[in-house]
Amino acid sequence: MNPMPELIPMLKQLRLSGILDSIESRNRQAIDEKFSYMDFLATIVQDEIARRTQKRLESAVRRANFRNQKTLEEFDFTFNPNINRALITELASCRFMNEKVCVLIVGPCGTGKSHIAQALGHSAIRKGYDVLFTTTARMLSQINAARATNSLERQLARLTGIDLLMIDDFGLKPLTGIQDEDFHEVISERYERRSTIVTSNLDLPEWIDAFPNRILGAATIDRLRHGAYKVVLDGKSYRCAPTEQEHKKQVVKEQKNNPRKEVKSPA
Question: Which domain range does residue 20 map to?
Answer without folding.
Answer: 7-62
